[in-house]
Write a structure and sequence with these properties.
It is a single chain. With 328 residues, the chain is an alpha/beta fold. The chain has a single domain, classed as D-Maltodextrin-Binding Protein, domain 2, CATH 3.40.190.170. The protein is built from 13 helices and 11 strands. It has a 6-stranded mixed sheet. Helix 2 runs antiparallel to helix 10. The N and C termini lie far apart (77 Å). Bound molecules: succinic acid. The site of succinic acid (SIN) has 10 residues, from loops.
């Protein structure tokens, strides 16, 4: 090969490499969720975007879609398996189709408070659950808190007999269905995006949710009563697809994981305070009457709902339930 030809060849190769680099597209991450932005999950997602776009500027772009704008909670995991969304944080009750193990978080009156939930999530047993859906192509990245659930209703609820025959919207979890059946209520599985309208039109009588969701989605404006029951937890699993996660260059994946951990820490740090603030805003609104249970009334709910643990013990595992109890 002549010297001239070799120079032309080398220059062309360099130009091609340069052109490739210049046009190398940033990795795009779509983060889809169903709640409002002023919630622990909404804030966590925005913090993640902020961290990633300052640390991996030009290499990774994050688009956050709140309020079920991109996918509702019944569709997001299927979309993730198809590669249409890269990050989500569905509530732990919405993985029923993918693993029975995460149902542990739905057992009524299992955790005494959110601190106990946190201790369990950080334990070896809790950490192991993060990857309980590996065979379904889903990779758990971390737990995120929202808070303890309360019961809202169009009529006052103090004891279990108050809910007999009443319709309650639940997330897609068989444990939650059993929980309402245990008190002779009628569970109705519906997506989060439909709850407000179902309540407003009185198609259902009530629902269970956290202070943050009841406030940010205005459920308190269409429910006359909220019973502070703290009967269960509503937390999240930040999740991605195994295919997407393993396709990332090592350095990018490491940086994304650090940013997710930091964003989760931030979300968790505001969750408890947010629950208190949102509860107070509901009280101040005078739109809904808050019912506080006496010790005896609360015990009636525990007695009625706790048999659900036994019903799901073989699916969840007794060891896991014992580990959760130990975290109290
Ligand atoms: C969420 O907090 O992501 C939604 C909870 C629900 O479906 O009730």
């Amino acid at each position: 090969m002549s010297f001239k030809k070799s120079i032309i060849g080398t220059t062309t190769a360099l130009l091609c490499a340069f052109a490739f680099n210049a046009s190398a597209e940033a990795i795009k991450i779509k983060f889809s969720h169903v709640v409002a932005e002023n919630t622990p999950k909404g804030q966590m997602a925005l913090k993640f975007k902020e961290l990633v776009e300052s640390r991996l500027a030009g290499k990774v772009e994050v688009d956050v879609f709140p309020n079920s704008q991109l996918f509702g909670d019944n569709k997001v995991l299927e979309a993730m398996q198809l590669g249409d969304v890269q990050l989500a944080a569905p509530s732990l009750s919405k993985f029923d189709k993918y693993t029975k193990k995460l149902q542990i978080f739905d057992l009524p009156f299992l955790f005494s408070d959110i601190q106990a939930v946190d201790r369990f999530q950080q334990s070896a047993a809790g950490e192991k659950l993060l990857n309980s859906m590996s065979r379904k192509g889903l990779h758990g990245l971390g737990y995120l808190h929202n808070g303890m659930k309360q019961l809202s209703s169009s009529s006052p609820l103090s004891v279990p007999s108050d809910v007999i025959g009443k319709k309650f919207r639940i997330m897609t979890s068989d444990v939650l269905a059993a929980q309402f059946e245990a008190v002779e209520a009628v569970p109705v599985k519906k997506p989060f995006s439909e709850v407000f309208t179902l309540l407003q039109t009185k198609a259902i009588d009530g629902q269970e949710n956290t202070w943050s969701n009841i406030y940010s989605k205005k459920f308190f404006e269409v429910q006359d009563f909220i019973t502070e029951s703290d009967h269960g937890v509503l937390d999240y699993l930040v999740v991605t697809s195994k295919e997407f996660w393993t396709s990332l260059p090592d350095d990018i994946r490491d940086e994304l994981k650090v940013s997710i951990d930091e964003a989760i820490k931030y979300g968790n740090s505001i969750a408890i305070e947010k629950a208190e603030q949102d509860k107070q805003k509901i009280i101040d609104s005078n739109r809904s009457t808050i019912i506080y249970l006496s010790k005896e009334e609360r015990q009636e709910w525990v007695n009625a709902m706790q048999p659900v643990w036994k019903q799901f013990e073989s699916e969840i595992g007794k060891d896991l339930i014992d580990a959760a109890i130990a975290s109290n």
